[in-house]
Design brief:
With 152 residues, this protein is α/β, with parallel strands linked by helices. Helix content is 42%, strand content 14%.
């Protein structure tokens, strides 16, 4: 089983979008039993809050539900529990390494590395309000990630 944790600053926009897009892609590929997929925040600001309404609406436009998801913070123990920890931007990666005590096993990556956009960051809709750009980035990254793990 491949265990993936998507991470962003607050766990209410980008990382839950990635979590539920990836779950949807895996389900459509018939691979649900081969994955454990979740998301978390690097900050404590939104802990316990649901997915931000515009992010929920963007997922719903594509038939994807994120019902019941609430924000949680990344912990040091998550490093051992997951095979891949996927951040949305460079600030996320710095904070992930700090929280996890480094990255000795090379598990921490940027999502858009998997879309052949190395070094690029997933658009942050919290600041731009552009949830479509975020959707496109997340979808491309998740499709690339799944393709890198399984030949479909």
């Amino acid at each position: 089983m491949t265990k993936i944790l998507f991470v962003c600053h607050g766990n209410i926009c980008r990382s839950p979008m990635a979590e539920f897009v990836m779950k949807d892609l895996v389900k459509k590929a018939g691979l649900t039993s081969q994955f454990q997929i979740a998301s978390a925040a690097t900050s404590r600001e939104e802990i316990g809050n649901p997915v931000y309404p515009p992010a929920r609406r963007k997922l719903a436009e594509h038939g994807i539900s994120c019902a019941g998801k609430t924000a949680r913070q990344l912990t040091r123990a998550d490093y051992g529990a997951y095979d891949l920890l996927i951040g949305m931007d460079q600030a996320n990666l710095r904070n992930m390494r700090r929280i996890c005590g480094g990255d000795p096993e090379g598990k921490i990556h940027l999502l858009l590395e998997y879309a052949d956009r190395s070094g690029q960051e997933v658009a942050d809709p919290w600041y731009t309000g552009d949830f479509e750009a975020t959707w496109q980035d997340v979808l491309a990254g998740c499709q690339g990630l799944l393709a890198s793990l399984y030949i479909l």
